[in-house]
Amino acid sequence: MSVRYPRPLHPGDRIGVTSPSSGVPEELRRRLDVAIHDVEARGYEVVVGRCMDGAGHVSAPAADRARELMSMLTDPGIRAVVPPWGGETAIDLLPLLDWDRLRDAEPTWLVGFSDMSTIITPLTLLTGTATVHGNNLMDTPYRVPEGLLSWLDIAAAPRGHRYTQTPPNRYRATGWDDYRAQPEVREYTLDTPGRWTRLDGEGDVEVEGRLIGGCIEMLCNLTGTAYLDVSAFARAESPEGLLVYVEAGGHDAFAISRNLHGMRLAGFFDTANAVLVARTSAPDADSLTQHQAVLDALGPLNVPIIADVECGHVPPYLPIVNGARGRVVHTSTRSELTQILD
Q1: What whole-number distance in Å separates Cα of residue 231 and Cα of residue 97?
Q2: CB atoms within 10 A of CB 215
Q3: 68, 156, 301, 304: least buried by Cβ within 10 Å?
Q4: Rounded-to-integer distance, Cα 290 and Cα 257, Å
Q5: Cα separation of 249 and 114, whole Å?
Q6: Residue among 318, 330, 6 at smallest CA distance from 165
Q7: How far from chain centre, in Å, is Cα 65?
Q8: Could you tell me the pTM of the whole model?
């Protein structure tokens, strides 16, 4: 198995929208309409599925969500699939997906983060299909800060494309946008300065490897299962090692420490040349910060650990392609992530 990159998006292509986890409440449908319009404005046709209901914590029964996702991912006329956002229990889809069929089908871009890690990361590991850990559909209308890209930019890039993203060194530390009152909001409120932080020591970092990772609270439940055999993926696709990235969605520092310890003990980080950790607004504990939680669990790896990367729940967003070759540079004056789609 080698990494399979979907064909790049071109104007006129169809993009599927479905909710493998949480749907969209009626009071937020105007934001959904704005996001769909913005994708259409870039020349794409948007196909909205039936699994979109936001009345509960999932958009439809698991069998229906799995069927719709399978249909979109195996339809040669749909070139990318994006959810409105994440949720809580996409894990119930995993045994219902036909992984052999997905492996044999022409690859389609699957995009998302948070609970979508439960699906996109196994999809890369089990089928070799590159996936985009990046801003969901409801985030798509925001104007992308200088130095970063949108998932639409990445999905339109050709095989072999090389691109570098650099942090804007500002992020949103307080509040959130109210999509009910402002469904057309397109400007991020980046109210706080902040750079990447090396947790394991000092000195410059320059390291390479294929990229894989996702949301800690979701992936920790898959460690030790066939859906998250990172070591097998590394042996097949990146014997020189991986660049592993993780992000905390909302659990406190004690929970994150336990989750990361468990992931390390299960071998998730065994082939990591470095670990990238997203900036988080998740709470510290009385005697343990989020940074300390990461270092407590992953310090024994003895690899560079770079925190406060823009690949999590705190805006803005730095999309990462699972399966792409990556190169991280972090110095006192420069931070960047280069990805190559090969």
Answers
A1: 22
A2: 24
A3: 301
A4: 8
A5: 7
A6: 318
A7: 20
A8: 0.96
Residue 86: both structure tokens together: 């994440």
| Residues 253-295: tens digit of each pLDDT | 999 999 999 999 999 999 999 999 999 999 999 999 999 999 9
**What residues contact 241, with CB distance under 8 A and at least 6 apart?**
208, 209, 234, 271, 272, 273
Average pLDDT score, the chain = 97
pLDDT class of 1 with cuts at 50, 70, 90: low
Is 70 exceeded by the pLDDT of residue 155?
yes
Distance CA 289, CA 297 (A): 12
Q: Residue 326: what residue type?
A: G
Cβ neighbors of 110 (< 8 A, separation 6 or more) are 73, 80, 81, 82, 116, 119, 120, 123, 129, 131, 132
The two structure tokens encoding residue 212: 């894989």
Q: What is the mean pLDDT of residues 304-325?
A: 98
